[in-house]
Design brief:
The structure is a single chain. By secondary structure, the protein is α/β, with parallel strands linked by helices. The chain has 3 domains: 242 residues, Purple Acid Phosphatase, chain A, domain 2 (4-Layer Sandwich); 72 residues, no CATH class; 57 residues, no CATH class. Helix content is 27%, strand content 25%. The protein starts with a strand and ends in an 8-residue tail after the last helix. The structure holds manganese (II) ion. Manganese (II) ion binds next to loops.
């Protein structure tokens, strides 16, 4: 059969603490375990699909949090698929430092780790394929390490496995800059890339097909949309890989536009309607926008609970629904009118987004205070 059958994944971040994603600790703990479950499913898919090669494009684990017991657990999964060659190209979250478990641990014989910062080759003669890769040895790499590289005319399928930042030609990056032109010039048939957590294709020429696999399990609200793996056959002039969703849950952000006629019940109903059928086990962020009656701030803690999702957070970005024109025309002589006119005048001249936000808040906090309402600070 032509080419080689691959499963391309990466950016699993096993062992991640989820502290930075600001999820409640119980939710973070569950997500931490779910990363392992998803890793299990990936191994199962590799087995069921009888792939020849499992490509892991870096950030397999978090070297700061992963224990040797975790590495043993990873290695045991690879032991379950002895006939599949496993290739790992470490990234910035699992770099090959002096004490790295990539160097000190005894990995299964079917596992190949690209430990050197220099690009090197793993020849798989039975598939007429060469896998090229390198491993990160630091948290940042600014050198364009692929510059001038050419795999050579070896009549094999050439695959690149790399954790890197594909940027427009000439741009810099702290995460190993690679230009799309270098993927084609390198003579690669397929580039299995990691680092960008949203899976996408990088087509530069008809010859080299590049893919970012993305994180199979999304890690925070900046990682919306579907997450999965690439699976299929690649070879010389062949690229039949398909994206396959595999994530247990999705991060979903919904903006809800409100007006002063909305009651708390209506807000809750609107939130519930945004949850897709059988979709309550996802993670939701509801952003309330528009305006509400002054003093009718929604109880966000109640809404988070009442919507009944695996996880929901509610961000209240509404403004009190004051009729500013009416305040200015009716209250020209009064302090509310003068205050509103002054603040609106300053807002009109201000171009800096952050300063505008402060002025806007000052306007509404001031109006609340002048109306004798409870003032909720910033
Ligand atoms: Mn990553």
């Amino acid at each position: 059969m032509d080419g080689i059958k691959i499963l391309h994944t990466g950016d699993l971040h096993l062992g991640m603490s989820f502290a930075s994603s600001k999820l409640p600790s119980n939710v973070g703990r569950i997500r931490r375990q779910e990363l392992w479950e998803t890793f299990d499913r990936i191994i199962e898919r590799a087995e069921d699909e009888k792939v020849d090669l499992l490509l892991i494009a870096g950030d397999l684990f978090e070297y700061r949090y992963c224990t040797s017991a975790d590495i043993k657990r990873i290695n045991e999964k690879f032991a379950r698929i002895p006939r599949i060659r496993v290739c790992i190209a470490p990234g910035n979250h699992d770099p090959v430092l002096g004490d790295s478990l990539y160097s000190t641990f005894r990995w299964q014989p079917n596992v190949h780790i690209f430990r050197s910062r220099e690009i090197s080759a793993l020849r798989l003669d039975e598939y007429n394929t060469v896998v090229w890769g390198l491993g990160w040895d630091a948290g940042e790499i600014r050198d364009p390490l692929l510059e001038g590289f050419f795999a050579g005319d070896n009549h094999c399928t050439n695959i690149l496995l790399l954790h890197c930042d594909v940027v427009p030609k000439g741009s810099s990056s702290s995460y190993l800059p690679v230009y799309p032109e270098q993927l084609a010039a390198g003579g690669f048939d397929y580039a299995a890339l990691g680092h960008i957590h949203k899976g996408r294709e990088i087509e530069h020429s008809s010859k080299c097909h590049g893919r970012y696999c993305g994180s199979p399990e999304p890690l925070d609200f900046s990682e919306g949309g579907e997450h999965g793996i690439y699976i299929g056959r690649v070879g010389r002039n062949i690229c039949r890989v398909k994206f396959e969703p595999i994530a247990r849950r999705r991060f979903i952000t919904e903006s809800i536009s409100l007006d002063p006629s909305c009651t708390p019940d209506m807000i809750l109903r609107e939130m519930q309607q945004r949850i897709p059928p059988q979709g309550s086990d996802n993670l939701f962020r509801f952003i309330l926008e528009g305006s509400l009656d002054p003093g009718a701030e929604p109880d966000t803690v109640y809404l988070q609970q009442a919507v009944q999702a695996f996880h929901a957070e509610v961000i209240n970005s509404t403004l009190p629904g004051y009729d500013l024109d009416a305040i200015m025309s009716e209250g020209q002589e009064g302090i509310m009118g003068v205050f509103t006119e002054k603040l609106l005048g300053r807002l009109e001249k201000e171009t800096d987004g952050q300063k505008r936000a402060v002025l806007e808040r000052a306007l509404y906090i001031g109006l609340d205070a002048l109306n004798g309402r409870k003032v909720i600070g910033p």
